[in-house]
Amino acid sequence: MALLPQIPTTFLSPKSPNFPNLTTSNKKNKNKAYLKKRANLLRCSAPDKHQHNPNASPQPSWSDESTELPLFPLPLVLFPGAILPLQIFEFRYRIMMHTLLHTDLRFGLIFSDSSSGTADVGCVAEVVKHERLVDDRFFLICKGQHRFRVSKLLRTKPYLLAQVDWLEDRPPTRTNNDERDDDLESLAGDVETYMKDVIRLSNRLNGKAEKEAQDLRRNLFPTPFSFFVASTFEGAPREQQALLELEDTAARLRREKDTLKNTLNYLTAASAVKDVFPSSPSSSSS
């Protein structure tokens, strides 16, 4: 599979100067335009690091037992640490938002489309910014938190409510922790290198400057970095869903490495063809 990772120019977080300043009161139209333009686009921010388990996903504040969670099926995949703008206009999800405003402002976003149906594994979306409009629509900025698996569907109306169990990547089977960490670090380094090469060649084919890619990893530990990489595979939600469902950081990084390697081979071949048969001004204008 050949995929072009969609790398955000900035890593948005609630403290970022580029993060829209939304509240429940009326704000300037530029915030609405910002959300409309970026509705349903994933952008990733650096997740919090964990003192005891640096490769863990952000932990939910609920009990470690399974819990009830409202579900929002969408044809996209959310990852832990990712930032997602959303517009809420359907009546049943406006009801959900009114409920969430009086509780903990978290719901489960789960991938669903007409061909594959609704997935069993999703990601908690925490509403970190919101704006309620006069027509009762909502503009939201959500951040991906913890992964979950639906264990039981409790109701379908007015919106889906499910019993969910939390997912965490399994620790590697190696007994040598240093060797395990070295393997994960090596895989993460390989993935970052392939991403940089893919970006460089993609820029070249699109007539952009072949400048060195930014520091893509940004000091992320392997697990949150693997989620960041997966979030850049926009346009391939089923592949993203498969990556979300993996419970092994090394397996996720290996799959991303293979995908990026195939993409790099494709771009290298396309670049070679372009060098041999460059477009002439006359052919490009016709």
Spell out the blueprint of helices and strands.
Layout: H1 29-38, E1 43-44, E2 67-74, E3 82-88, H2 91-100, E4 106-113, E5 117-132, E6 138-155, E7 160-166, H3 177-205, H4 222-231, H5 237-245, H6 249-276, H7 281-285
Parallel strand pairs: 2-4
Antiparallel strand pairs: 1-3, 2-7, 3-6, 4-5, 5-6, 6-7
Helix pairs in contact: 3-4, 3-6, 4-6
Pfam families: LON_substr_bdg
Region (Disordered): 45-64
Biased composition (Polar residues): 53-64
Characterise the protein shown here.
The chain is an alpha+beta fold and 286 residues long. The protein has two domains: 29-166, Archaeosine Trna-guanine Transglycosylase, Chain: A, domain 4, CATH 2.30.130.40; 177-272. The chain is built from seven helices and seven strands. It has a five-stranded mixed barrel with strand order 2-4-5-6-7. Helix 3 runs parallel beside helix 4 and helix 4 (222-231) packs across helix 6 (249-276). It starts with 28 loop residues before the first helix and ends with a helix.
